[in-house]
Amino acid sequence: MKRESCEGEKLQEHTEKARQISLEIFSDPTAPGAKTKKAEVDAHLKAAEKIVAKAAGKKSRGRPKKKPGDPPSPPRNRRESLKVTLKPFNSTHHPEFSWVVYWPSLDPGCPRNSRRFKTKKAAESFVLDKETEIVNRGREAAALHDSVAKDAAWAVKALKPYNATLRDVVADYIQRRQSAEKSSLIDEAIDEFIDMKKAAGKSVRYIGDLRYKLHKFADDHGGLLLSEITPMTLDQWLEGLGVAPVTRNGFRRVLAVFFEWGGKRGYCDREQNPARATEIATETPKRVPIFTAGELRVILDTVPAELVPVIALGAFAGLRPEEIRRLDWKAIDLLRKRIDIDAGVSKTAAHRYVPISQTLFQWIQPYAKSGGKVAPANLYRRLWNFHLILAEKDEKNGRPAVIWKHNALRHSFASYSLAKEEDAARVALWLGHASPSMTFKHYRERVTPEAATEWFDVLPEKKGKTKGIVKMEGAA
Predict the structure, then answer these.
(1) Quick one: DSSP state of residue 372?
(2) Contacts of 199 (CB under 8 A, 6+ apart)
(3) 1.10.443.10, 3.40.50.150, 3.65.10.10, 2.40.30.10: CATH of 293-456
(4) Structure confidence by residue, pLDDT tens digits, 382-427
(5) Taking the domain 183-264, which CATH number applies?
(6) Whole-model pTM above 0.85?
(7) Distance between CA 266 and CA 89 in Å, rounded?
(8) Which of 79, 238, 310, 444 is most solvent-facing, going by the fewest CB within 10 Å?
(9) Which helix H or strand E contains 36, and what residues bound it?
C-alpha cells in the first residue's frame, strides 16, 4: 500500500514539474535555454508514462488474457460488504486528514460512502454510530447524507402539530403530482365537456346554461388545472358572485356536474368532487309565478293559430317548453286521451303519460295531425315575438296587457291541478317530478279549488281559433 502511494506521489511530481516548465516556455519562448527546458518537459512526461504503464501492468497481471474459443468466465459472485471500516488516510492534497471511514451506500452495487477525519478518536466514534444505525434502522437510513437527515428531522418536527407523518405528506405530494400530470386546463376541459354534452343530444337551452356558467368560472380560473381546484377555491368564487342563493346553487350544480365528469376522465380526484364539498346556500322559499284564469283567456284569445297547441299543452298538461318543442303529434292519443312523453322528449329522460282533459281536448283537437312536430319551426323566436305583443295593451280591441312570466303555464297547471285533484303523487307523475315532495313543496295551498275550476273552464269560444288571431312579424 505504501509503495503504491509513493508511486502516486512520483507521478504527481513529474506531471506538476512538466506543467511548470511548460508555462515558463510559453511565457518567453525566445529566452536562453528554451530548448533545454523542452527536453526536461519530455523527460518528465516519459517518466510519468512509465509509472502509469507499470501500474496498469500490475493491475492486469492477475487476469490471464482470454484466447479465442475459450469458454465464458463464470459470473463473479461478490458479496457486498455491509461493514463499516476504518482505514488510515494519506494524501498530499488533504494533509489535515489522517483517517477515513467507509460504509454501505443507499443503493446496492454503488460505491461505498466515505468520510475523512483528523483524529482516530473522532473516526472510531463515527464508526460506532454508523454500525448502530445500520443495525437499528437499516442501510437506507445509515446511507442518508447529513443534510438529508437534518431536513427529515425538521420536517417531522414541523408536522407534529398537525398529527401528520412524513410518509403521509410525501404520499400526498406524489398523488398530487401524478394527478397534475394527468389533469387538463380548465379552459380546454370546458370545451371538451360541452362538446360531449352536445354529442349526447342535450338541449340547446341546457348547453347554453352550461356554457354561460362554466365560462364565467373560466374567466377567473381558466388557466389552472382541474386538479388544482379545492372546495375553498370554489366557495370563495361562489361567494364573490354576489348573486341570490338560488342562482348561487345553480352555479354550484353546474360545477358539480363538470367536476364529476372531470373525475371520470382522470383530470381530478374522482372520489372528492370539490364542488360537492362547497356550502349550499339557504334558499328562501318563494312562490312560483302563475297566471290567473283571466290572464289565460287573454293569452289564448291573442295567440296565433300556429302556437295554440303549444300554449294549451303548457296550460292544461304542464309540459315543459322543450318537451313541447320535441313532441310529435303521434304521441298525442286523442282516442285514449293521453300524451305519451317518452325518454327522448322528457327533460329527465324518464317515460311518463299525461292525461288529456276535456279542456285540453277542445283546444288541440282542431289542430291535430297524424304526425309531425306539434311546435312550429323557430319556436322560441315565435314565442318571444308573441310575448312582446302580449305585453302591449290593445286599445282598439280592448285587450289588456299581460306580462309573460317564466314557466308560468307549467306552474299554473301544477298549482291548479293540485288544488283540483288534492293528490300530490298523481300530479307529480304528470309533471315528471322525481317525488311528490317537490310538487307538494312548491304548489301547496297556492290556489283555491274555485280558482282551479275557473282555470280548467277556459274553453274555446267556438270551433277552431279565429277570434283575436294576431299575425306575427319576423317569424320565419
Answers:
(1) S
(2) none
(3) 1.10.443.10
(4) 999 999 999 999 888 889 999 999 889 999 999 999 889 888 888 8
(5) 1.10.150
(6) no
(7) 57
(8) 79
(9) helix 34-60
